[in-house]
User: Which sequence fits this backbone?
């Protein structure tokens, strides 16, 4: 496997390459792309634009910008070309981002992600050690490309850069979570949400999502909308009750929700 190198990007040509990556990764319309000039301006004002390179080719990037809190960065985008997923490029980008932020006094990074995309949830919660306690209904309004066809509900990931949990997870894969006996907040049959259970209590609960949300979004608009409404109901309810998404399990895709 070819080695991945990550570095900050400089100049209009490399920023234009980031614009092209946005097109390729998400299939976005021009109106949804962050343009070259804005990437340069945000970097000038303390933002991060870094690229992942394999054999000299840029295959991914991360883009984060400052917030009103000087110790907090908002990570707006991280994307890796499909052919290079599984190479570790995304993890190397996030490691670079963590080191870059800590060197500048930034202690926490936040970003949003679609709660129904299991690959992203697994990466954010399990591999990076982020957690999520905030549900944002239709946060960006109608979207284009691979996100078209359903309201843009999002979870807000919170990445505490100095926590032992984060450091351990980004350098040592954790053991599988212990799920036996945990109550499940919903019932799913044949990739369809069948029932929600909103009266459960306990230190840890499970919430199941589809195995392939991307396929559902492309092929079955009615089912996609049903899943969006279901996740908004169940996740929104339990997060409002003080639970936090702290881990993720595959086969089937399930969130682990914990209440301190």
Assistant:
């Amino acid at each position: 496997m070819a080695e991945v190198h990550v570095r900050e990007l400089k100049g209009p040509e490399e920023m234009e390459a980031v614009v092209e990556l946005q097109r390729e990764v998400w299939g976005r319309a021009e109106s949804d792309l962050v343009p070259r000039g804005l990437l340069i301006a945000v970097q000038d004002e303390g933002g991060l634009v870094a690229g992942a390179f394999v054999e000299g080719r840029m295959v991914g990037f991360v883009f984060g910008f400052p917030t009103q809190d000087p110790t907090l960065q908002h990570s707006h985008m991280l994307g890796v070309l499909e052919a290079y997923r599984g190479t570790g490029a995304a993890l190397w980008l996030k490691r670079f981002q963590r080191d870059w932020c800590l060197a500048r006094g930034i202690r926490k990074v936040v970003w949003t992600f679609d709660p129904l995309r299991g690959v992203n949830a697994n990466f954010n919660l399990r591999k990076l050690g982020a957690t999520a306690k905030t549900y944002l209904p239709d946060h960006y309004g109608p979207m284009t490309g691979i996100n078209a066809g359903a309201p843009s509900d999002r979870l807000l990931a919170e990445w505490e850069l100095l926590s032992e949990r984060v450091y351990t997870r980004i350098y040592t894969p954790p053991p599988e979570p212990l799920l036996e006996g945990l109550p499940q907040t919903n019932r799913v049959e044949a990739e369809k949400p069948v029932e929600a259970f909103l009266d459960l209590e306990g230190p840890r609960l499970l919430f199941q999502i589809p195995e392939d949300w991307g396929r559902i979004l492309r092929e079955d608009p009615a089912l996609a909308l049903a899943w969006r409404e279901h996740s908004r109901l169940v996740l929104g309810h339990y997060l409002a009750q003080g639970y936090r998404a702290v881990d993720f399990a595959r086969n089937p895709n399930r969130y682990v929700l914990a209440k301190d």
Remarks:
- The radius of gyration is 18 Å.
